[in-house]
Design brief:
CATH class of chain A: Mainly Alpha
Largest sheet of chain B: 2 strands, antiparallel
Low-confidence stretches of chain B: none
Strand content of chain B: under 5%
Strand order of the largest sheet of chain A: 1-2
Radius of gyration of chain A: 19 Å
Structural class of chain A: mainly alpha
Distance between the termini of chain B: 23 Å
Helix content of chain A: over 70%
Number of helices of chain B: 14
Strand content of chain A: under 5%
Radius of gyration of chain B: 20 Å
Order of helices and strands of chain A: HHHHEEHHHHHHH
Distance between the termini of chain A: 45 Å
Mean pLDDT of chain B: 85
CATH topology of chain A: ABC transporter involved in vitamin B12 uptake, BtuC
Number of domains of chain A: 1
Number of strands of chain A: 2
Oligomer: heterodimer
Low-confidence stretches of chain A: none
Chain lengths: ~290, ~325
């Protein structure tokens, strides 16, 4: 294996990891704070990619405008879903899962009916490539990694503010948080909007590299939720580490094993769960 | 007494059904309902002990592929493939379950989902000469039965498959019923109510959960074996994780606290209503989505539960 191939796999793996971490942190934020296992998270990711495609690819607006627009749209959609569907089901775990599955079905198949199953390609936002140790790496993938890290930093800062501390409090104990004068329902709403916006940003970053289609959510979502449980939810550091492990395993495993790399990922997940049942950085939690 | 009468009516209706409904297509629908009922009962048994499994279709697929491979590559008869497929599924689920059942909760949910996703990808892309790739396995032999004085009879018509399905469903119901009404079933119930409390009572929660997981998947494997021989061909997409999700939806349609009737009524509703409304394919999935939201928001006890409540209200008036 030449050094240039190693580098290629490394960058591809890190770019994958960046996407997984973005989607996983949004998912884990919603799961940790509101106790909603949001199955429709993948569909917010998909719709976010489509919105970005519409704004920046179709109408040719600036890409920053596209990312802001798609994340705002998904935040509003997530908030609406929370207020009208999840809020009445507060406290029933299985019923919220079922409701989120219903939302996911409606969004996916609705997209298939309206837009169809064809792939949409958009022209790359940043042309050009760098040569590192003989490997050609497109600038696009590097920018994804940088952007993802930046967003993690922003999320870390948000969690340090008053609202973020309230989120931690609500995640810890909802009743105690309510007794301290925290508006729990509003914190839930904020967490849901933030999580969906992060999914949308993930989708927007993916749109120029891979194609956009109505079934793009599933595979990424599964890797992202694996990241969530293996890192133990509520830990940004853990999400970054485990996301990198999964992304690198996927890209290097694809080089050596082909599609059997998924089996490798599953075995790694089994090993981690065997030794650390609640994730590497997790604590014992109840649903 | 009333229960016995209801059971007799339903049983004789099910036995006489092929004489009432002549169209093979509707018989096919009833066979599909039977398969989904078995899967949904397995899902509910796992739910009973607090495991939400989104990997039912994975074990269904493992059973189907095991049976199909045994029948096409080794030429074994269906009557041997059926139990072997169940045992293979049980052993695999014992191996995986001994790791993923321990943390339970969300980890279990996500690991079964990942298992299902990965299984379909693996069946589709690796060992193409063995698994047949995305094209799957075709020309799986039909089961045949040897009856004295008649010679060997091959299962050809839908009606014969319907009776085979009915006996398989009956076997599942009998086993599940006797489990729920025995000591271990009551233990399951306790674990479902409160794992902490049952642990403090000296119940080995992990072992009971594992038992429920393996039993449920054994029957999913049996259903898979039947499905493989009934269809005659297998494709990996038939077992993708949306199927597992549909199984969950059927259980909620029926009502999750009705362990035997819920799955049957739920899967029957979910298969028959879209058929009557003549919506198929994409619109069917949207219809499921809307129906599940309506049921979750307004009929939390499911269809069977709501009927029971209505009956109780009517009787008390």
């Amino acid at each position: 294996m030449e050094i240039s191939t190693i580098f290629q796999c490394l960058i591809n793996g890190i770019a994958l990891a960046a996407i997984y971490v973005l989607v996983a942190s949004g998912f884990s934020l919603v799961l940790g704070v509101t106790r909603i296992l949001n199955f429709a998270h993948a569909e917010f990711y998909m719709l976010g990619a489509f919105t970005f495609y519409a704004i920046s690819g179709f109408f040719k607006f600036n890409w920053i405008l596209g990312i802001i627009g798609s994340s705002l749209a998904m935040a509003v959609l997530g908030g609406v879903c929370y207020w009208f569907i999840f809020r009445p089901l507060y406290g029933f775990f299985l019923r919220t899962v079922a409701a989120s599955i219903g939302i996911a079905l409606i969004i996916v198949q609705g997209t298939v009916v309206v837009i169809g199953e064809k792939d949409f390609f958009m022209s790359p936002l940043f042309s050009g490539s760098v040569n590192i140790a003989g490997a050609t790496i497109s600038v696009e993938r590097l920018i994804i990694c940088v952007f993802s890290l930046l967003l993690m930093l922003i999320l870390g800062i948000i969690l340090k503010t008053k609202v973020g501390k309230a989120m931690y409090a609500v995640a810890e104990d909802q009743d105690a948080a309510a007794l301290q004068g925290i508006n729990v329902k509003r914190i839930f709403l904020i967490a849901m909007c933030l999580g969906c916006a992060m999914a949308a940003v993930g989708g927007s970053l993916v749109a120029p590299i891979f194609s956009v289609n109505s079934h793009m959510g599933g595979p990424v979502f599964i890797m992202a939720i694996l990241t969530t449980i293996l890192s133990g939810h509520g830990s940004i550091k853990g999400a970054i580490i485990v996301g990198s492990i999964i992304g690198l395993t996927e890209s290097f495993g694809y080089y050596f094993l082909g599609s059997a790399n998924l089996v490798l990922i599953f075995f790694i997940a089994l090993v981690i769960i065997y030794f650390k049942p609640f994730g590497i950085f997790g604590r014992v939690h109840q649903i | 007494m009333k229960k016995v009468i209801i059971l007799l009516i339903v049983g004789s209706f099910l036995v006489l059904l092929p004489f009432i409904v002549r169209s093979p297509y509707y018989i096919h629908l009833f066979i599909i309902i039977g398969i989904y009922s078995i899967l949904t009962m397995g899902f509910l048994m796992q739910l009973r002990v607090g495991l939400i499994s989104i990997g039912v279709a994975a074990f269904w697929g493992i059973g189907a592929y095991a049976s199909a491979l045994l029948a096409t590559r080794l030429g074994l008869s269906f009557w041997l493939c059926l139990p072997v497929a169940g045992i293979v599924t049980g052993v695999i689920s014992l191996g995986i379950g001994s790791i993923i059942v321990r943390p339970a909760g969300i980890s279990f949910f996500i690991m079964t989902l990942a298992l299902n996703f990965i299984l379909v990808q693996v069946l589709g892309t690796t060992y193409v000469e063995l698994f047949g790739g995305w094209g799957g396995i075709s020309s799986i032999p039909r089961p045949s039965i040897f009856i004295l004085f008649f010679g060997s009879l091959e299962f050809v018509s839908k009606t014969s498959y319907y009776y085979l399905m009915l006996s398989l469903l009956l076997l599942t119901i009998l086993v599940f019923y006797s489990i729920y009404h025995s000591r271990i079933g009551r233990t399951f119930n306790t674990i479902g109510e409160s794992p902490m409390l049952s642990e403090s009572l000296g119940i080995n929660v992990f072992r009971c959960r594992l038992a429920a997981f393996v039993i449920a998947n054994f029957f999913s494997g049996l259903a898979g074996s039947f499905y493989a021989h009934y269809q005659g061909f297998l494709v990996p997409e038939a077992f993708d994780f949306w199927k597992s999700i549909y199984v969950q939806i059927y259980s909620i349609f029926g009502g999750v606290s009705y362990l035997i009737w819920g799955p049957i009524v739920g899967s029957a509703t979910a298969v028959i209503i879209p058929e009557f409304l003549r919506i198929t394919g994409l619109l069917e999935a949207i219809f499921y989505g809307i129906l599940i939201l309506v049921i979750v928001l307004f009929l939390p006890a499911g269809i069977v539960g709501s009927l029971c409540q209505a009956h109780k209200k009517y009787m008390s008036r």
